[in-house]
User: Which sequence fits this backbone?
């Protein structure tokens, strides 16, 4: 069975060989089809023979998200039509092809986490309103956060979608008052409401409603899913328990109907929180925590830089990505939810300049060549 079609997304023991076979195949594929990647890892002493002999995901060369925002990497013909996803951080962008094998992953994760439903819902999306552009009559949603939120809203049929960040003449404007008005209307009906989006925007909304002494009881089976982000509306980190308390106090949504999700354009694996609010690592990926000085793997329970690994992406060599996050990988048994795979705890972010990007080696190469396939 295909790794991304496997029904149990946390059965890593039975899928270990499948995962490794896919990783090695993905490694060889990008080495052959992406000239920039081949040049980069060759500068690190890698060749075809060494790739064939590699025996651990921890040994596969990693790239940083910061590097991918500055350099074009592609492992498919340039004239191949593709859907694009774009991540924008601090004016820097990453753009990659949409990976269709993520559909099986999303269906399995949605089923296990009880997100799939045939009952229509009203969606409140605390994120970007999709920018609609004419492209052969199709909608083109380029923002990565908009893609993730829109995709999450497909687990149940959408009766309506309301966005907090409105697209006004190409600029995004935060409109929480409109969200509050829509919630006022939805609370009078029976259709469940699903609120999706960035934790800090959820906090701004809930805190504003509390300050105005607004209290609602949303229809049965309503829920909140926290995830995504927008740095222009950054606010100091809010404790999870504070968010859960506000959700129940202001909207009548209990903690067991609050969940989180995590996903990145450079690592499009979907992570959903368990009932204990932990991100367990699914069969589609592996997480390596590396020492901040030596970049060597550290034991579970030790903080370090978060290195995400997956064979999911064919369009670009994103099989091993070093993020700008600090985190800890915990043994699954510490959670107590019943899922046995390790879980990831994100501690915060480090500066991009602190993350290895192979810059020293890359500077020795022809920059024009690095822009080619």
Assistant:
């Amino acid at each position: 069975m295909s790794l991304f079609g496997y029904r149990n997304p946390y059965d890593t023991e039975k899928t270990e060989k499948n995962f490794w076979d896919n990783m090695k195949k993905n490694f060889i594929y990008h080495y052959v089809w992406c000239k920039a990647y081949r040049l980069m890892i060759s500068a690190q002493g890698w060749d075809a023979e060494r790739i064939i002999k590699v025996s651990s995901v921890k040994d596969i060369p990693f790239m940083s998200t910061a590097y991918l925002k500055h350099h074009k990497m592609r492992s498919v013909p340039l004239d191949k039509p593709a859907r694009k996803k774009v991540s924008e951080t601090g004016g820097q962008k990453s753009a990659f092809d949409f990976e269709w094998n993520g559909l099986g992953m999303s269906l399995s994760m949605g089923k296990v986490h009880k997100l799939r439903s045939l009952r229509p819902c009203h969606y409140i999306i605390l994120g970007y309103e999709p920018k609609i552009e004419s492209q052969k009559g199709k909608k083109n949603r380029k923002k990565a956060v908009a893609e993730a939120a829109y995709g999450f809203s497909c687990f149940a049929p959408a009766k309506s979608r309301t966005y907090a960040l409105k697209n006004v003449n190409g600029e995004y404007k935060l409109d929480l008052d409109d969200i509050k008005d829509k919630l006022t209307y939805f609370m009078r009906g029976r259709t469940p409401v699903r609120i999706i989006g960035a934790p800090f925007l959820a906090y701004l909304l809930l805190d504003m409603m509390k300050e105005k002494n607004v209290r609602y009881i949303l229809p049965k089976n309503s829920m909140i899913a926290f995830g995504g982000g927008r740095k222009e509306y950054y606010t100091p980190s809010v404790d999870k328990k504070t968010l859960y308390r506000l959700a129940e106090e202001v909207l009548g949504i209990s903690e067991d109907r609050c969940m989180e999700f995590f996903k990145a354009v450079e690592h499009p694996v979907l992570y959903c929180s368990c009932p204990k609010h932990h991100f367990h690592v699914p069969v589609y990926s592996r997480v390596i925590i590396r020492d901040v000085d030596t970049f060597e793997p550290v034991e579970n329970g030790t903080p370090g830089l978060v290195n995400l690994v997956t064979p999911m992406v064919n369009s670009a060599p994103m099989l091993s990505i070093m993020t700008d996050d600090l985190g800890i990988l915990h043994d699954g048994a510490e959670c107590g939810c019943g899922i046995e795979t390790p879980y990831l705890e994100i501690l915060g972010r480090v500066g991009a300049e602190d993350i290895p990007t192979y810059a020293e080696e890359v500077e020795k190469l022809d920059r024009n060549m690095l822009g080619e396939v």
